[in-house]
Amino acid sequence: MSMETGTGTAHRPQIAKADGSAVRVLVVDDENSLTDLLKMALRYEGWEVRTASDGLGAVRAAREFRPDAIVLDIMLPDIDGLEVLQRVRADGTETPVLFLTAKDSLDDRIAGLTAGGDDYVTKPFSLEEVVARLRGLIRRSTLTLAQAKDPVLRVGDLSLDEDSYEVERDGTPVELTATEFELLRFLMRNPRRVLSKAQILDRVWNYDFGGKESVVELYISYLRKKIDAGRDPMIHTVRGAGYMLKAAG
């Protein structure tokens, strides 16, 4: 693990919640040296940090601490990170989750994302990378101040409110995760424009997946099930080029 907090983070504006209070992050890993390093790096961002060393402790901490984001190791000594996430989600929270995994397997990563996680990093990683991923997740969550002057985007019978994070198709509410919402927002800001997987990765996840663009396909499939299911499709695949959203009909 490299400790690359660097000077780049020192000059970034701090992220705070809409009420001005500090962002809360729960870090879950059974390696104390790792959690200590992450705690230091995240506190440097001005965030409030709590740690847990096992899955059951993580579930308890999530209920008590009510974090705004969770850094969650998949391999834990009691229940694994996927089970932790399922229990946290069962409590009705949509807190963004950044998975840590020692396994460099795309299947494991996709399994985590499918279970409701929002992002992942593979060990070894730099502290700066973790901080950057968390900043991206938190920016996309409903916790930060909305910056749009005109909050409602509309394409055909699809509307997206950037202030309330409400999405509707033909007047019917559509429930999206934070990452799905950001992906749809990017598509709706560029109607009838073909967006490549690389462009989507750069804009929605704010970093390069190292060529593993299948995560884009995964989230496009999620959106299609929620936006297009039983309706005229709005999300289109342009073979060899990318994806495009346009009004149905």
UniProtKB/TrEMBL annotation:
* GO cellular component term, pick one: protein-DNA complex
OmpR/PhoB-type domain location is 150-247
What's in the keyword line of the UniProt record?
Answer: DNA-binding, Phosphoprotein, Transcription, Transcription regulation, Two-component regulatory system
- Keyword Transcription present in the record's keywords: the answer is yes
Q: Name one Pfam family in it.
A: Response_reg
Q: Where is the Response regulatory domain?
A: 24-138
What protein does this entry describe? Response regulator
What is the originating organism of this protein?
Agromyces kandeliae
